UniProtKB/TrEMBL annotation, chain A:
InterPro entries the UniProt entry points to: AAA+_ATPase, ABC_transporter-like_ATP-bd, ABC_transporter-like_CS, BCAA_Transport_ATP-bd_LivF, P-loop_NTPase
Keywords: Amino-acid transport, ATP-binding, Nucleotide-binding, Transport
GO molecular function: ATP binding; ATP hydrolysis activity; branched-chain amino acid transmembrane transporter activity
Record lineage: Bacteria, Pseudomonadati, Pseudomonadota, Alphaproteobacteria, Hyphomicrobiales
Naturally occurring in which organism (per UniProt): Maritalea mobilis
Ranges where the ABC transporter domain occurs: 4-229
Pfam families in alphabetical order: ABC_tran
Transmembrane annotation, as ranges: none
One GO term (biological process): L-amino acid transport
Taxonomic superkingdom: Bacteria
Record-stated family: Belongs to the ABC transporter superfamily.
Gene3D superfamilies linked: P-loop containing nucleotide triphosphate hydrolases
Protein name per its UniProtKB record: Branched-chain amino acid transport system ATP-binding protein
Automatic annotation (TrEMBL), chain B:
Entry keywords, A to Z: Amino-acid transport, Cell membrane, Membrane, Transmembrane, Transmembrane helix, Transport
Family assignment from sequence similarity: Belongs to the binding-protein-dependent transport system permease family. LivHM subfamily.
Transmembrane segments: 29-53, 60-86, 92-110, 187-209, 215-234, 239-257, 263-279
PANTHER family to which the protein is assigned, alphabetical: ABC TRANSPORTER PERMEASE PROTEIN (PTHR11795:SF450), BRANCHED-CHAIN AMINO ACID TRANSPORT SYSTEM PERMEASE PROTEIN LIVH (PTHR11795)
Localization of this protein: Cell membrane
The protein, known as: Branched-chain amino acid transport system permease protein
A GO CC term attached to the entry: plasma membrane
One of the record's GO molecular function terms: transmembrane transporter activity
Species this protein is from: Maritalea mobilis
Superkingdom field: Bacteria
Length: 236, 289
């Protein structure tokens, strides 16, 4: 069964249609990778899914339950976690207090520290003082402690050093292996394709590829074409 | 000597009230991001309902409890409008909304409570706590100061030590991130409003007998209260506590000095002006975060 299903989802920003009827699924134990150039609508899809913004039409189904009318808070409590673009830490709070905010009664802080031991040594530090990589670990771990069924992760690697990115990718793979469904948005495709199972390529709000990560990984020319298809046409 | 001490002591009870209202103002500002001009008016609603119930023959204790509940309800009304109807609006718009509501509260309150004729407030805590020569400290002023101190400590402890306090801090810092972690954003915001309203209602019941207790002057206690909150930079409960007490004492002293007496109502404005000038210099006043 799918943990999360988006069926024919349309989303507008203001009056402008941005996402035009996408179908996306995320399965327990798998990573669905959502790729696309700047402005393709990746963040918009995640925000529509978690309830940050409303969707214009279509269905959002979490383990069989309709979510598209529910508030963001309700969706979160139902099991949709959203790690937003830009590391939304509570900067005035310590690392540990950040982790406690969404703590599910059945989760414990050790889960976060097992995944990212570096956070433990920084537990009592004001989170604004953490490095970019540590802040990214913090928001991922924080989302995890809410005991979600599916995690939406937006551009976690932006601006981070390659070793740190590799570390994060490895952690996300581990989470999926433990049974979580992951929808991972990345602009830099290769690393995400390495850990992903299923891939979607989004261009101007439409899904132009829906298939295995492996095929894209082994065919860089195809990936390039999918990303830039429009521009090639435009310049021709 | 006593000629200064007596008015200073009288000012202390007013200072306690300013401190309580100032702490409540910071509480609402920090947690639901609204500069609430109705802060004292909602408390006045509660206090006057208590008086009305007592006049109708209800014993004091249940009347006080119902008055506190009424203060909470009045604050919930303001909270509902600012945090639900105007949920998308920025801080200045919300502050303007509460300023408009204050005008409405005062007009309605004066009409319902018989205009500017001071009501007779029952003295909840009668008598003097201490009397030395002709300096006296009333029970009510001790209670006001005590409540101000307890409230300051309680607010700090609540925010720093409880789960709900933690959620409230998260909510005030990043409402959307907090909601995405499953926090019941609206419920918490309304709880904040209700607590502030209940506390203010009780505080006004305590100090109303010490002032000229008509609805408008009680509602306008928000001015010195916001001055106290400003001293705390709308952040520090302790600074607001000391600020409120200091404003009260200065007011009291001014009323004891013949030439200054007429101008004592201007003291909170002078404080606001000075703090604003000072904070401009320190560029503390940016809301850009
Ligand atoms: N608040 C907004 N109001 C109006 N349009 C917006 C808003 N946010 C984004 N857009 C537009 O919606 C489109 C999709 O934006 P979105 O942020 O979803 O893209 P993205 O794929 O996440 O891009 P990036 O890789 O840069 O994060 C863009 O054309 C953008 O200009
Ligand atoms: Mg984006």
């Amino acid at each position: 069964m799918n943990a999360l299903e988006l069926n024919k989802v349309h989303i507008k920003r203001g009056d402008i249609p941005i996402v035009h009827g996408v179908d996306i699924v995320a399965k327990p134990g798998e990573i669905s990778v959502l790729l696309g150039a700047n402005g393709a609508g990746k963040t918009t899809i995640l925000e529509g899914t978690s309830g940050v913004i409303p969707i214009a039409s279509g269905d959002i189904v979490l383990e069989g339950a309709q979510m598209c009318k529910a508030s963001a808070g309700h969706r979160a409590r139902s099991g949709i976690a959203h790690v937003e673009q830009g590391r939304t830490i509570f900067a005035e709070m310590s690392t540990e207090d950040n982790l406690r905010v969404g703590l599910h009664p059945e989760s414990g802080l050790e889960q976060a520290y097992d995944l990212f031991p570096e956070l433990k040594t920084r537990a009592n530090v004001k989170s604004a003082m953490l490095s970019g990589g540590e802040q990214q670990m913090l928001v991922i771990a924080r989302a995890l402690l809410g005991k979600p069924k599916v995690v939406l992760i937006d551009e976690m690697s932006a601006g981070l050093a390659p070793v740190v990115v590799a570390r994060l990718m490895q952690a996300v793979r581990l989470l999926a292996d433990q049974g979580l469904a992951v929808l991972l948005v990345e602009q830099f495709a290769n690393l995400a394709l390495d850990i992903g199972d299923r891939a979607y390529v989004l261009r101007r709000g439409e899904v132009v590829y829906d298939g295995s990560c492996e095929i894209l990984r082994n065919d860089p020319a195809m990936l390039h074409h999918l990303y830039l298809g429009d521009m090639e046409k435009d310049s021709a | 000597m006593n000629s200064l001490l007596t008015p200073a002591m009288a000012g202390l009870s007013a200072g306690g009230a300013y401190a309580i209202l100032g702490v409540c103002a910071i509480f609402t500002y920090r947690l639901v991001a609204v500069v609430n001009f109705t802060g004292a008016a909602v408390g006045a609603c509660g206090a006057f309902i208590m008086v009305a119930l007592v006049e109708m023959g209800m014993p004091l204790f249940p009347a006080v409890v119902l008055g506190i509940a009424a203060g909470a309800l009045a604050a919930l009304f303001v909270g509902f409008i600012t945090t639900i109807w105007f949920s998308g609006a920025n801080g200045s718009v919300k502050a303007a909304v509460t300023a408009a509501l204050l005008v409405g509260f005062i007009a309605l309150g004066l009409r319902l409570t018989g205009g500017q004729h001071p009501k007779r407030f029952p003295d909840i805590l009668q008598g003097a706590w201490l009397r030395l020569a002709d300096v006296q400290i009333t029970n009510a002023s001790i209670a006001a100061i005590g409540l101000a101190i307890v409230l300051t400590i309680a607010a700090e402890q609540f925010l720093n030590r409880t789960r709900t306090g933690l959620e409230l801090r998260a909510l005030s810092e990043r409402p959307m991130a907090a909601e995405l972690l499953g926090i019941r954003v609206r419920l918490l915001a309304l709880i904040v409003w209700a607590i502030a309203g209940a506390v203010t209602a009780f505080a006004l019941m305590l100090i109303a007998p010490l002032r000229s207790p008509d609805f408008a002057s009680l509602s306008l206690l928000i001015v010195p209260a916001l001055a106290a909150a400003l001293i705390g930079a709308f952040k520090s409960f302790r600074a607001a506590l000391f600020g409120g007490l200091a404003i009260g004492i200065i007011e009291g002293l001014a009323s004891g000095l013949v030439g200054l007496n007429q101008y004592r109502a201007a003291i909170p404005f002078i404080v606001i002006l000075l703090v604003l000038l000072w904070s401009q210099r320190e560029a503390r006043w940016d809301e850009s975060r």
